[in-house]
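Q: Hi! First time doing this. I have a protein sequence and I read that you can turn it into a structure. Is that right? Here it is:
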Amino acid sequence: TLTVVLLLGMAVLVAAQFATPTIFGADGYLHVRMAQFIRQLGPRYDFHWARFSTFSRNFADKDFLYHLSLIPFTFLPNMIMAGKYSACVWAIFLYLTFFWMLWRYCRARLFIPVFLVMFLGSAPFVQAISQTRNMVMVMGLTLLFIHFLIQSKPWPLFVITVVYALAHVSSPYLLVFAGLGEGARFLNSGEFRWRSLVSVAAGLILGFLVHPHFPNNLLVFYLNGILVPIFALKWGLELGAEFFPINTRDFALDYPFILLGLFLLLLLGATQKKRISASTSIWMAVSAFFFAFSFFSQRYITHGYPLMLLALATYFGDWWQEARETPRFPKSKGIWAGLGVGLLALFILLGWRATRDFRKLAQVEAVYNGHFESVGAWMAKNIPAGETVFHSNWSDSQYLIGVNPQNDYFVTLDPIYMYYWNPQKYNLYRDIAFGRSQDPYAALKEEFQTQYGYVGKNYFSGFIQQIRQDSRFQVMAEDGLGLVFKLK
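A: Yes, that's right. Below is the predicted 3D structure, encoded as structure tokens:
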């Protein structure tokens, strides 16, 4: 049964990836292209594609190790397939790592196939791990990190911290996880292992120092790891949707196993007499961090979903081992058969809903990302190389750099890089995009020295109206989702 579930799970991840002909999400286009930049230009190259941002002078690749892992895929003739195949590999890596943690820490083997199915039971989560994004690699590294933390192995902790620090800007959070884990161990067994924290701290220092873009990577951590969460809490900067919370209804429908598992945990906790294992307490402590912050930002739900499932699995495994020893433990096969049938029916119902929702998400990806693939290809043929192109949404450039790297753009990956570089120019940029500028033609020509631009039709109707009413603008190409313009 376990073998069948594992194989089916990997097949589901591959099928999900190819449910759309495009790369999932916006960032994947940029990540594949950045891997190609490293292959062609070396690790220390001039990132001029984000012309009006800190990247233009103080570039640091916050996903450096992830981009190195993508380089073999860039030898494929089609960059879309490079992104999709690499995403399959990392999604399967995460799935197998999750399985290994279940096998290692869930004391009730019969629960393992159940939780492997739960792993695939959320449409937004499957969509997230189908993206060509570093967060999939980071999620797998986090599971391995907690494993070595539980085992109190300082050298593996040190090594995986160095790897994480080279892979993603969020690496300092590992010190928080280590503190939470050792705090949970202390409450459980009265033992606090300081050497784990020392190993993690040393790994962070070395990882930052050996990064090819040191010391610029310190600035990137400050901007992306500190300022962005602050702006997300204050709603003071135009950030991606993942930085803001989702409502309770969407949480319950998109991640049903978390709330169901939490309800069961509270219910069974009243019958628990023995203390849970130290490993379970550590899984629960770190997953509680993600659960608490998921009320402020939905990205914590995505990143913490495997952790939350593992915490539930290890807790239920501990409870099962204790419950089987009690005289009131039900022995009737009929009771367990009924529970099995009920659980199967629940999985079928939730699986049908998750499949339906995922297909809708994939259809949206195919239309929206297909549009940007067409826009980028059109620009490559019709806009002179080296021109800086305006884009109404800061995230449009992820697509456009990936598909059309012969032109430069304003900012990429996060608006904080432009806001920190020059707050006044960032505010002018947003005023132009939302149609608030009194003379967008003069602002684009004089302040940004740009002659071409792209405007999406989703949020920027005000600027589109200005373009249509101003004879100094020329619409060069247009479809139902956006238009490309030129300053006469």
